[in-house]
Write a structure and sequence with these properties.
three-stranded antiparallel sheet; alpha+beta; four-stranded antiparallel sheet; 3 domains; about 20% helix; coiled coil; flat; about 375 residues; 4 helices
């Protein structure tokens, strides 16, 4: 679903087909769609998550970076901490594969850099050290050999490596992209002839180690946004609290747990779910297909409201004076009635969507009689 699809459907619902005498320009429709997406996102936001490493003896943390800079974080939805069993994560690989330029084509001529990570049922380690190789004319493939593999961890429950990810830069580049996945812990070689153009928009290496054993059931942690607790020095001017005169500090949140639960190092993981505005543009959309007609309905309301402004004026200025038009006082009333009816439909639909989301979020599966202090055992 792209913005152009919504524009076309909106014109059909407004009975405003393409032609020389359209009531609404494309810019008018885009503004109405933008308003509808804003309103819809307040009821059914785009929920994303990110992982953050703990800091020793800290409760207060900055807001996470949004998945897209054009769609900043609106609020925090929920926080899971601790995410994984303490001490169950694999360390990042320390060995590096051997990289050799081979005869063939596919890569450009220049320097390429490679990384390796380990995959587990819980997630992925941070990357290994970098290995570098230079391709030359006619030798434009790279053979990776001696790719490191891991042994099983048994110190705090059995944790195994189930695969490995390979990351590569573009020629003479510094930014790494996912090259491919090895779906086992035994294969030790990989032939790379993937052109640079195929790497665009692929995943980048993780910065947080999530390779540990997941805690079950998940432990939601209470938190306070825009907080300033007694043990916080960085939140004194953070989000909502005054900064220097005329400014507002960066937003932060504080985890509300006791001193015994404070993290002792930076190896634990906080999983943060946050809300943003939905994306709807020429490159794609995060709005579920089932809600497509809701956006069109809301956009038609805002488009009709904007058009009604010109119908309210029953006079026109001509030859230096106001002249009465032909009596069309019924026209503004008809537009207002149509707008009111559609607005009511839009608001009712938003309430339905909100209730569906709330009911789904409130549903919890209780796995037996789990004691309240089970996590301490």
């Amino acid at each position: 679903m792209l913005l152009t699809d919504i524009e076309a459907a909106l014109r059909l619902d407004l009975f405003d087909p393409a032609g020389p005498n359209q009531r609404w320009t494309t810019m008018d429709l885009d503004r109405a769609i933008d308003k509808a997406v804003d309103r819809y996102s307040q009821y059914y936001p785009n929920i994303m998550y990110t992982d953050m490493a703990t800091q020793p003896y800290q409760r207060t943390y900055p807001y996470p970076q949004s998945w897209n800079g054009s769609y900043p974080v609106w609020w925090l939805e929920r926080i899971i901490y601790p995410l994984q069993v303490y001490g169950s994560a694999f360390p990042a690989p320390t060995a590096i594969p051997l990289a050799q330029a081979n005869a063939g084509s596919g890569l450009n001529i220049g320097t390429y850099r490679y990384l390796v990570t380990w995959l587990t049922p819980g997630g992925e380690t941070t990357p290994s050290p970098v290995v570098t190789v230079t391709t030359t004319s006619g030798n434009q493939t790279v053979l990776l050999s001696a790719i490191p593999f891991a042994s099983t961890l048994t110190s705090s429950g059995t944790n195994t490596v189930i695969g490995r990810n390979l990351y590569r830069t573009q020629v003479n580049g510094q930014l790494f992209f996912l090259l491919g996945t090895i779906d086992d812990n035994t294969t030790t070689s990989w032939l790379d002839n993937l052109p640079d153009s195929a790497l665009l928009n692929r995943a980048q290496p993780p910065t947080i180690n999530t390779s540990g054993i997941m805690l079950w059931p998940p432990r939601e942690c209470a938190f306070a946004e825009y907080s300033n607790l007694f043990d916080s020095t960085t939140a004194l001017a953070a989000g909502g609290n005054p900064d220097l005169q005329g400014r507002t500090g960066s937003p932060s949140f504080t985890l509300t747990f006791n001193n015994a639960e404070l993290p002792k190092d930076n190896t634990q993981v906080i999983r943060i779910f946050y809300a943003t505005r939905h994306q709807l543009d020429t490159s794609g959309s995060t709005i579920p297909e089932v809600h497509r007609d809701s956006i069109i309905l809301g956009a038609s309301v805002y488009a009709m409201e904007a058009y009604q402004v010109s119908t309210n004026d029953n006079f026109e200025f001509q030859d230096g004076s106001l002249h009465d038009r032909i009596d069309d006082t019924q026209s503004p009333q008809a537009w207002l009635a149509a707008i009111t009816s559609r607005r009511q439909q839009f608001e009712e639909r938003l309430q339905e969507i909100k209730q569906q989301r709330d009911f789904a979020y409130a549903a919890r599966i209780h796995w037996g009689e789990i004691p309240i202090h089970w996590g301490r055992l």
